[in-house]
Specification:
- The complex is a heterodimer of chains A (about 110) and B (about 120).
- Chain A is built from no helices and eleven strands.
- With about 110 residues, chain A is an all-beta fold.
- In chain A, a hairpin with a 3-residue loop joins strand 6 and strand 7.
- By secondary structure, chain B is an all-beta fold.
- Chain B is built from no helices and eleven strands.
- In chain B, strand 5 and strand 6 form a beta hairpin.
- Chain B is globular, with a radius of gyration of 13 Å.
- The chains are: A mainly beta (about 110), B mainly beta (about 120).
Chain lengths: ~110, ~120
Amino acid sequence: GESVGLHLPTLSVQEGDNSIINCAYSNSASDYFIWYKQESGKGPQFIIDIRSNMDKRQGQRVTVLLNKTVKHLSLQIAATQPGDSAVYFCAENAEGQNFVFGPGTRLSVLP
Amino acid sequence: DTEVTQTPKHLVMGMTNKKSLKCEQHMGHRAMYWYKQKAKKPPELMFVYSYEKLSINESVPSRFSPECPNSSLLNLHLHALQPEDSALYLCASSQAMKGVGSNQPQHFGDGTRLSIL
């Protein structure tokens, strides 16, 4: 079946730097995408979403970029903080179908 | 704190035991989900309820039995589980749109950590 994948399974960044987490998807029918953050011992926490009629959406310190041409999604975190350390999952959804989660990227913030 | 509450947080059971996992949400969501998550893996969908009716069963073994008593509650009954069923079980909810779970964010609880002896 179709799946969502990530280029980097782990990412280490210095505190204060910007982080970019990438996600590739293969279902051309997907029209809704979510980034989740999962901290140790907790469930996935919604960070930001984007629909396919947009190519960029900004939240507080986070930006999601969607490139439908190459089926690529990214999450940018500005001024990364220790509290940002977690596993980040992208998830894609096509109408009438279930969400498909990517394999996840572990973000480690170095002091 | 999450708006989806799951109990218990931890559960250890033998292979012959019967136990239940519980999930509650008061956001008025009409779609509720059970996921299974193994260590270092993404969540895997097990069941979807839409308007209190089971709409999706992702070929889950019958030793897992879901139940949706009302629009706020979701249970997962467990019986005769195997050691490989040890995992984090996550409940989620979303506004139900036409087409199950379509294009609405899912809100997750913090899960029940299940260990099968």
